[in-house]
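Input sequence (329 aa), recorded before submission:
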Amino acid sequence: MPDATAPSDGEIRAGSRVLALFANPLHARILRGHVNGPQRLAELHENIGWSAHTTLRGAVTNLKEAGALGKREVGDSRFAVATELTPAGEEMLEVADVVDTWLGHAPDGPIASDSDAARGAVKALAGGWSSTLMRALANRSFTLTELDRLIPGISYPSLERRLASMRTTGQIEPVESEGRGTPYVVTDWLRRSIAPLCLAGRCERRHMEGSAPITNIEVEASFMLSIPLAPLPKSANGTCMLAVQTDICESQAGRSNRLAGVTVEVERGKVVSCAAKVSEGPPTWALGTPETWLDVVIEGELQHLRLGGARPQLAIDLIRGIHFALFSE
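Predicted structure, token format:
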């Protein structure tokens, strides 16, 4: 049986499996339908009641296979079975809530979570993340032809479809160019999608056996997309490296265990550059494991990070700024 939580084309990156669940709004409704306790299928249908029994049963099966729902006997009969939220399901419900918050900030106005527009937006986001389009566009513009050369693992037609979906839903936009082709850049709305992606990635690492590794691709994309949103005090100045001890580092030369991250230059509270670069002797730095960084960005607590260098306050300002930009609501 195919993995119901896997993105299209079989591509899986950290956070992709959980995020892809919410391309079907019914999954979020089912999770919310279990908040007050176990639910039999008939009770669930009555409570959320906008889909056929077979459709509802299939969606419940998807959530059980993803580990979000577990079985529980109710009543005196051993045939009386209900489903209930697991710890994984409770975290997935948090992801659903943050996805809804993200949809509420869409460029053309809030998107209702049960709408076809929501389905299209989440599907486009999952496709952009799993295909590494978001990493490619994180800090500069590219045309479709340039992206095709940069991302060889995906066919040109598939890349074109994904790019079109992201443009239609307002996640990327075209910019003027004197050259051939239309370059695209990310919107601030796409930058804010790092919030649900962080929660989805943390949920997978905590609860899903065989979850996708966190590599330099996810690390670099997350930092480069979110840092421009981070509010900083005017006193913030200097150069700081934010680094993660990744599971795997991906490159054309192969894979190896190593650090991945970005080096950020700040002048008078403004980010003037953010490059995917780590070095052995940065002026200021913050270092942590993937789990530590996910907790820091989501919860805003810095105590488990390793900070050092000439201006540790700069690292603190950057990290707090990222947390505020993504999770202030």
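Checked by second reader. Residues 1-10 have pLDDT under 50 and may be disordered.
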